[in-house]
Write a structure and sequence with these properties.
With about 500 residues, this protein is an alpha/beta fold. It is built from 18 helices and 18 strands. α8 packs across α13. The mean pLDDT is about 95.
Amino acid sequence: MQQPTHSLIVVDMGIDTHQEPVVYMRRDCHVCMAEGFNASRRVALSYGDCSLIATLNVTSTGVLRPEQVGLSKIAMQRLKVKPGDSLSIQHAPVLASLGLLRKKIFGNKLTRAEFKDIIQDISTHGYRDMEIASFLTICAGGRLDIEEIISLTQAMVECGKHLSWPGHERIFDKHCIGGLPGNRTTPIVVAIVSAAGHIIPKTSSRAITSPAGTADTMGALTNVSLKMADIQAVVAKTCGCLAWGGAVNLSPADDLLIRLERVLDLDGEGQLIASVLSKKIAAGSTHALIDIPVGDTAKVRTRTDAERLASLFTRVGNACNIRIRCVITDGSKPVGYGIGPVEEARDLLSVLQCQKSAPQDLRERALLLAAELLDLAENSGLDEAMDKARALLDSGRAYQQFMAIITAQGGLKSLPQAHFHHDQHAQRSGRITAIDNRKLARLAKLAGAPFSPAAGLRLRVNVGDTIHRGQTLFRLFSDSTGERDYALQYYLNNLDIFTLEDA
């Protein structure tokens, strides 16, 4: 029997619930009373050709009239409704894939078809946040075997859109698994490799557990919310692009998963591989370079773990018809001076412009990765590839190429300035023997990065430096005094971010 539908009048509640749609109804609303709706119930909304599953919040009698339904901002956007419109509401359909979720919770293996059912329901916003969090948790901690990682990757690809590149047999890409503050090499690598004439349509995610992702940093410099046709037009002009993948739904479930991963501060191995490779495959890439930093406080702690992760990337890539080259790099200390979207943008511009003040560790790291990708493309050997990468950077051709990409994407923005800053000074003299990457990233995030692009910090010292009492360790940037003070209190409670020994 077909379930009944009811009509209610839309009210814009003006409430930002981020990416989770929420609907508000009075407790004594005739729909709530007729259907037995109560708080946290999932309900199906429809307006014209648009439909949506949302979580119900029940209000007191003074907030809405009985014939009204309130919508959060994201619900208004996805339904494409205006205040005063009439929408239909009924019980949400029962999701069979939730049974598969419980199957995995109890330790059973999932098939490719079962993963696809779960990912499809997540992609269409059928899961509430707690259910997405459950899925992420059961995928973490090595709970997915190689077959499941392959199945999850393929499911994420199948549930999104795909870019194609007629006339080009080989499409290149590059990704760093993260965990290393300031390691913003990707824009530099894209500039060098595309300047060499290779096709590299780079689509990136927002930050998950870091103070900035490539899309966050590039978003401070130019427009990264490109449609598929825009990406193809930019690449046709320049051989490369630097876009936000979430804007084109190449792997729509991924951005929903990333949002919860950020809250949970969780980046599970199987989910990490599926997330990265699904986006590469959906972007049409045939060859990809994966940077795996290793260090005591990086995402990957030991070389053994890095080699295992590299093997998994390669095996999943082979199963999905994409050639993967993994490079294990030094993740023992931060890279560059800036941490946070704007500060990292300053660093990468200084490297591309070959400024004397540019961070040399960022420059050399980007050259190494560019050489690896050029060798993958040209099979020339790493020495010759390094010479070519260095020549493209030192001659200014890489910067010209970067600016051509920026221009094609809408032009260069002026970098915003943070409203507040604070210089933190050393409390004693000594030699810096270690910096805790995770805590340093946490400090920048508490200051407001990446959501406030200008927030973050600029390092004045790094591992190996000998410092004196009163010397500036870093400058902290924030857009509010509350975030500034919150971050500084965290620093004072975690002075071991910088490990010093007597000089």
